[in-house]
Structure formats: C-alpha cells, structure tokens
Amino acid sequence: MSLFRRAFIITAIAALTACGFSPVYAPGGAGDGLKGSILIDEPDNRNEFSFVARLEERLGRAQASKYRLRYDIKTEAKGVGVTPAQETTRFNLFGTVTYAVIEQGTDKVLATGKVENFTGYSATSLIVSSQSVTRDANQRLMVILADQIVARLIATSADWRK
Helix, strand, or coil here: 155? Predict the structure, then answer.
C-alpha cells in the first residue's frame, strides 16, 4: 500500500470520527433498539405485502414490540409517453405513504410522517406482460417508500424512542 493511500485512509477515518460518525445499529447508535421492536400493521393487499416485507427486512420482525407502525399507502399511475396515435407507452407510478409510530399499550402517537416517490414502467400490448411490469413497478415503489421510512425512523428515533 502506498504512503499516499495510507495517509488518505487515516485522514478519512479521523474525519469521520471527528464529525461524530457512528454506526447506526451500534450500541448507542441511532438505530440501536429499533431492530425487532416495531410491530408493523398487517398487510391487506399486494402493495402492502411488499411494503411490510421490506420494512421487516430492514427493521426485523417484531419480537418484543414497544412500538407499532400504522401506515396508509396511496398510488396513482399517470401516462407520460404517448405516441402520435394517442397510445400510452410509458407510465409513472406515484406513491405516498403516511405513517405513525405508536407506543404499544398507551396508543400514544410518538412520530408521524409522509414519504413520496415514483417509479416508471413501459406499457406493452400483451396483457400478461403488462400485468407483470405493472406488478414489478408497484413492488419497486413499495421498496423505495419503505426504505425512506426506515431512514426517517432511524434519523428521528432518538426523539421518540424511550
């Protein structure tokens, strides 16, 4: 390893520790104690299933839940690519999730928020292909929205977690 590379790595490590960087899930970190402590409301449809699966992948399944996550998902597809023959060839799928973190036992709302994002997909003339790409776009959008919520929960958990 070159002297320059070693100096760069040492400087980078020093800068990270000086700015207060610490691993999120380390003891005392912002995400410490979130793993397995949030019971997520049960899904009722395919989008909610994908959403909850991603949240549980990131936060773990609730074992000794101190908190409950309530959510409401809204999606809307809008045509954005139109041919001269007025056929829509591309869609943007917009999604919004409003959520609340609730303390188990007291039902006290500890945190609320709203995340929004979108993804796109191409329309096809085949019904099976069209259903497949639409389903895939919905699943991608649910992963994006779930990841945004996890990031917000980690960032704000020090304010509402006991």
Answer: helix
Q: If you compute the radius of gyration of the chain from its CA atoms, what whole number of angstroms results?
A: 21
- Are 45 and 121 part of one and the same domain? yes
pTM for the whole structure: 0.80
Alpha-carbon distance of 2 to 125, in angstroms, equals 57
For 101, how many CA atoms within 13 A lie in the half-sphere containing its CB? Answer: 22
How far apart CA 154 and CA 30 sit, in angstroms, is 6
DSSP H stretches of helix in 19-126: 46-59
Rounded to whole angstroms, how far apart are CA atoms 138 and 95?
Answer: 9
The answer on 63 and 79 residing in a single domain is yes
pLDDT in tens, 11-32: 777 666 656 666 666 666 666 6
